[in-house]
Amino acid sequence: MDEYDLIAAWYVAARSPEVGIADLAALARPLPSRARVLDLGCGDGVPISRFFLRERCEVEGLDSSPAMIARYRDNFPGVPARCEQAQEADLPAETFDAVVAWGVLFHLPEADQKAVIRKVTAWLKPGGRLLFTSGEVEGATEGEMNGVLFRYVSLGVRGYRNEIERAGMRLEASSFDAWGNYVYRAAKPA
Fold first, then answer.
1. Residue 1: is its pLDDT beyond 70?
2. Among candidates 53, 54, 41, 52, which has minimal Cα distance to 15?
3. Among 2, 106, 127, 145, which residue's Cβ finds the most Cβ atoms within 10 Å?
4. Which domains does the chain carry?
5. CA 75, CA 61: separation in Å to the nearest integer?
6. What is the DSSP letter of 32?
7. What is the pLDDT of residues 99-147, one digit of tens each?
8. Smallest Cα–Cα separation from 179: which of 38, 62, 20, 46?
């Protein structure tokens, strides 16, 4: 997203490195040793990629913002990072044990969100897990970060459950975290 190029320095400085850690820890518990994790919409990699690297996972970052990918590569030299849009990414099937899309899907139009959910399902190994954030209620809204306007689209709990099931996964849980983010966890059958 071009908007993140405009706010990259501010975003990196303003974002708490503790956001999402409890949800990441819950996601990591059932993962195999040396799990492969895709940080989808990785930004600068903090806190998600950093958390999984500390857990000794093999991590890959993907983000559409060149400014954010540059920061990611500075933070994690040698960790694979791709600069492309999630809805256009072409990754091998059954590659990842987990995909985390924190603060990503709700930036996409509804059709692109559905396409990304299907892609993620294909990228996950059997038994793989997906964690993402979006709104609890269906609808669209606009908001501002550091003076830049962003559009947010949510399919709502029922809409995400339907898309996850259509893609061949199961919604395991959805709830607010301590930071006010609405977090979804899904799993692909083993």
1. no
2. 41
3. 106
4. 2-187 (3.40.50.150)
5. 12
6. P
7. 999 999 999 999 999 999 999 999 999 999 999 999 999 999 999 999 9
8. 20
